[in-house]
Q: What sequence folds into this?
């Protein structure tokens, strides 16, 4: 029981730390805590339909050559399904809320949903060794936040300045998430390339955050 409690904490804490970190990016006009929690909860619940879709889709690649099968599982089964599900819940339940009044809010709420999603995913590993959750806390959880945060920028952009931009955000998120999984599936030396991928993604999200803040200020939204 003590190990299970420790593992649940290890599953949750990385998401909370990253949520705190990314919310600090939106200091000018902080979002309602209740809506942040709602987005987090939506991401948590979204794991269920995502998992069901993955179970249905994964067999489609059963007869593919090995590398192509790994590619399909990384970019379609994991990347497209998971990022698409997170995007869906934010577009369906958050984007039309009055508090979603800046491009920057796209980043905030999509990151919040992604961290709820990552928390639920981590719970699947809570009966195993704590080391697995520590590794996931340093890699998989930030990956969810970075890929979805970039997608969130384009979601905010699509609401206020460029309708349809969310499609570009989804494509980028799927690329980042899929490449991360594909490198891990390949294993060996390839797995180490996830670290430069994450640094590149963090740099990209930082640039998009700066653009969002600048555009919101210019338009008088912040």
A:
């Amino acid at each position: 029981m003590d190990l299970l409690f420790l593992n649940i904490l290890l599953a949750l804490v990385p998401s909370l730390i990253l949520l705190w970190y990314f919310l600090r990016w939106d200091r000018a006009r902080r979002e309602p805590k209740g809506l942040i929690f709602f987005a987090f909860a939506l991401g948590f619940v979204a794991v269920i339909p995502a998992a069901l879709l993955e179970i249905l889709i994964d067999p489609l690649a059963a007869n593919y050559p090995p590398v192509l099968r790994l590619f399909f599982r990384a970019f379609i089964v994991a990347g497209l399904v998971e990022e698409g599900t997170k995007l869906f819940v934010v577009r369906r339940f958050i984007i039309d809320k009055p508090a979603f009044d800046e491009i920057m809010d796209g980043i905030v709420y999509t990151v919040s949903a992604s961290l709820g999603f990552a928390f639920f995913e981590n719970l699947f590993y809570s009966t195993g060794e704590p080391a697995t959750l520590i590794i996931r806390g340093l890699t998989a959880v930030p990956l969810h936040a970075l890929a979805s945060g970039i997608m969130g920028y384009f979601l905010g952009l699509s609401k206020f300045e460029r309708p349809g931009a969310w499609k570009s955000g989804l494509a980028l998120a799927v690329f980042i998430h899929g490449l991360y999984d594909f490198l891990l599936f390949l294993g060996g030396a390839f797995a180490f390339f996830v670290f430069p991928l994450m640094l590149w993604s963090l740099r990209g999200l930082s640039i998009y955050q700066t653009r969002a803040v600048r555009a919101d200020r210019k338009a008088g939204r912040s």
